[in-house]
Amino acid sequence: MSAEPILTLENVVAGYGRSTILHGVSFGVARGAIVAVIGPNGAGKSTVFKTVFGMLPARSGAVTFGGAAITNLAPRELIARGLCYVPQGRNIFPELSVEHNLEIGGVAAPKGYDIRPRMEAALDRFPVLRRKAKRQASTLSGGEQKMLEIARGLLLEPKLMLIDEPSIGLSPILVEELFALLRELRGTGMTVLLIEQNAKRALENADFGIVLELGRTRVQDRADSILADPRIGQLFLGAGLESAPAV
After folding, report:
1. How many whole angstroms separate alpha carbon 110 and alpha carbon 81?
2. Which of 49, 142, 219, 232 has its CA 20 to 30 A from that of 93?
């Protein structure tokens, strides 16, 4: 783990209504790495992301990003600081064109920020989106819609991208393309923190792994060390990493 993690959570407690989901979660995210958050359903993975991104208030604890406190800041301010969140499911405007969906990604840009070169760069990275730039987003396949969400998130050149369940609904080929893209983004210096139910695939593509269980951090280690430890799969994933289902 890097001596200076780009993101840290210290004893974060959060939940919904009277229910507490996170019971003092603590971990660090190495700068310039792919970090996979894994664990059984109900472990609190998505709740962690929503709390980091200011969509759910932390009841106690601290979140820092780039060395600065960001606990309970609004999403718009976090975007301006270089944090991007691609939530689970489809989060596009289906009746708008692909191009207009991308333009919406620049709404939070600071004054004077020229979004057009970034849009061109995003379309270069996703040629299928360029070919369909004038079409309604609803006509895209599930995989293409996920590409659109990621492309939109990249417009403000974030330092850290949070991606929740990126492979859901994608074909095996698109899943491989997605992880290749994440590795490419890491190569540019971006940090990627992702939640992925397919633990084995996620860890194979990550530098580090974080295992959550019942709202607590159980393990934080190099991804290859977690993959090599059969106890992790037996304790936290029920059947072991080697038998995790393929997407």
Report:
1. 10
2. 49
Identify which of 151, 125, 148 has the alpha carbon closest to the alpha carbon of residue 137: 148
Contacts of 80 (CB under 8 A, 6+ apart): 108, 110
Give pLDDT tens digits for 135-188.
999 999 888 888 899 999 888 889 999 999 888 878 888 888 889 989 999 999
For the chain, list residues with pLDDT below 70: 1-3, 233-247
Pairing of strands 216-222, 208-213: antiparallel
CA–CA separation, 135 vs 143, rounded Å?
Answer: 16
Q: Which two tokens stand for residue 50?
A: 């929503």
Q: Note whether 29 and 191 are within 8 A (CB).
A: yes
- Give the CA angle between residues 132, 135, 141 to the nearest 5°: 70
Cα distances (Å, whole numbers) of residue 31 to 9, 161, 168, 193: 14, 11, 26, 10
The C-alpha atoms of residue 193 and residue 28 are separated, in whole angstroms, by 11
**C-alpha dist (Å) from residue 52 to 33, 98, 132, 138, 153:** 18, 28, 33, 30, 16
